[in-house]
Design a protein that fits this description.
Layout: H1 3-17, E1 20-27, H2 31-41, H3 46-54, H4 59-78, H5 84-87, E2 89-107, E3 113-129, H6 130-135
Antiparallel strand pairs: 1-3, 2-3
Length: 136
């Protein structure tokens, strides 16, 4: 590996050290409903986001809350010496993509059939630290 490539790889590795992520694949909720919840917590600090998700009445918020707790645990495993409160973690990026679709048929009048699409989605949640982003 060349020196330039190695330096770039080291910089990328150092940048990835301060972020943690979690993924939720094939969640049986439509992406449109999940994006409503994702838009509420995007860019919010983790303590406030956990409170928002806990008291939100939507079903998708329970799944995003569980995903956020998983991302926090991933961050703690990556940065063992640091505490979560001192790091100033926030939701840097939350992305909702459509997943696979289950296609079903529903009987319709006059011998016809209507197609029912049961949608699923993939959610990717990335945590960032405000302390590390300010120092750069």
């Amino acid at each position: 590996m060349g020196v330039r490539k190695k330096n770039t790889a080291d910089k990328m590795k150092e940048a990835r050290k301060h972020i943690a992520f979690a993924k939720l694949n094939n969640c049986p909720t439509s992406p449109r409903k999940m994006r409503l919840v994702a838009d509420i917590v995007r860019g919010v600090e983790i303590n406030k986001a956990l409170q928002i998700l806990k008291f939100n009445s939507k079903e998708a918020s329970r799944k995003v809350e569980k995903l956020l707790i998983s991302a926090i645990a991933n961050w703690e495993a990556k940065n063992e010496g640091e505490s979560v409160e001192d790091a100033g973690l926030f939701i840097k990026e939350i992305k909702v993509d459509s997943g696979s679709m289950l296609k079903r048929l529903r009987p319709a009048p006059q011998g016809r059939a209507h197609r029912i699409r049961k949608r699923s989605n993939h959610v990717t949640l990335v945590l960032g630290s405000k302390i590390n982003s300010e120092s750069k």
